[in-house]
Amino acid sequence: MVMGTASTMAGVTEALGMMLPGGAAAPSGSGDRLRHAVASGRHAVMMASKGSKPREVMTRSAFLNAITVLIAMGGSTNAVIHLIAIARRASVELSLEDFNRIAQRVPLLIDCKPSGRFYMEDLHAAGGIPCLLRALQSLLNLEAITVTGDTLGTLVSTVAEPPEWQEVIHSVARPLGPTESLVILKGNLAPEGAIVKVAGMK
Q: Residues 92-104: pLDDT tens digits?
């Protein structure tokens, strides 16, 4: 229930458009998780019957949105490797330079362990990835299509502001931390690049 690799990949999968909204942070064993699982299964069957393909959703714009969410979450460095691997299977150009470029303009917005104070269940209670996407909308490609068939912008337009009591999701105007929560470094020790997680370092 911390922002490790599994939770990070769930968040970026939702941002990529490959998950029904609201599923990334729901606690295991909760009613929300069960309802999301049932809805996902039914939706997958419906999409398969229509002949829908993952590549229709996993465009370059969608991957850039996923990177934006990754940086805003201060997510796991493993996500960089996974996203590049998935992009290659989808025949989408994605490079380490894309991560660095996006990291330079996206601040840290999510206050979750291990670099923050809260857990994934707290993120879910605060509105989850949909609320994070709303907070990030000025930095996203809102024309990207999701598995729902709607654009990301359409989905974000239906999301309410995070509740006032919550302290997990911050705004771009008042971020939790600076930009570049993840950075790609190159040098004589790592000529092809090394991933460094800056979020939480003191």
A: 999 999 999 999 9
